[in-house]
Amino acid sequence: MSRKTSETTSDEQYVDKTTRRLTPAELDARLRFIVGLTLAITMVGIIAAVLFSLIFVTQPIDSQAPNDAEFFKLVTPIATFLTGALSGIMVTSGGSKREGE
What we know:
With 101 residues, this protein is mainly alpha-helical. Helices cover 75% and strands 0% of the residues. Helix 2 packs antiparallel against helix 3 (66-91).
């Protein structure tokens, strides 16, 4: 019978850990992590696409291909926005209230 009690206690502890509510600071940290990770993965994808188009796609000798020129015109503002957003998320403080207040 004591074995059943210990199993129940262990199950109750497990339930308590999974149903614990996160504090606002923990939620903010998770949100910043997920958004930052998503933006970083998108940025890496853009950089990989640009490098692929520069390295492995045959270019005309005298100038840049018109399709590539349009591609770079499209990618440049997107990459600039992502860089700014990613740096803004990583630089901002964890909240407007300080811990001691």
